[in-house]
Write a structure and sequence with these properties.
290 residues; mainly alpha; 7 helices; elongated
Amino acid sequence: MGCCVTASRVVIVLFNFLFIIIGLLFIAGGLFLKLGSSVYKGALDSVQASIEKSISDTGGGSVKLNLDLGSVTEPIMFAFIGIGLFLLVICFLGCCGACYKFRVLLILYIIPSILILATEIVVVILFLGAPSVIQTPLASSLKSGIQSDFQDISGTNLLSVAWNIAMQQFKCCGANDYNDFTGASKWNINKYTGSTLKTPLACCINLPTGSASGDLTCATSPTTSTNYLNTTLLIILAFIIFCYTGKVVPSDDGPIKKNKVAPINTVTQVKPRARPAIGQRKNKVSPARY
């Protein structure tokens, strides 16, 4: 029984070290989003510059697109750091409870672990067995934002700039397809004289710039060779945290009490008495003769 207790404590400690590493990685990812903007900002700036050039060449004038990365990455940053800190706290409770046999800490460790495990199982089942349960509400929310706030390639509001850059960067057109933009209240499909846009210009594989700035057929008569019209962008942000529950087996003396070290079971070995060799006579005291 004592071996089972020791083994379960060792398993809890070893697995907690693994989750400490995962928690630190989440925190590092959050700090990278906060402090490492110069690393990924270059890629976004190049896409932003090509969109600005296309706007200028197609007669949209000089437009400066300012995408506030902080407003986009800040919620993700806080989510990463929050998850990392939560994992570290859970690991701390598990390690202290296992090493020092604090019953309260073990309870505080096991309850969140069970909740996390249940959430993980539900998310995995939905993601693999019924992905539409997750994708449909997400796509509906993204489409609703497009319908209410998307302007066009020259739009300067956050949603328009974010969608234009995302569609060029990830080679897509809308959350489901180009039909997400049909009927958008702020999108002027007749902005360009003599042309009726079927998709935003940002859905074009090659943005109309330079000598081709007057050719808008990639958006007025889109095909799969000139437009990302049927390519989907479904940004599914799912944090699947692998966890487990540890079972501590009580000792023979009953439940382990707080701040009490369980006794170590020892067995006293008794050496057997050596048998006299065959033929060897015992030393006996002969009775005295009178």
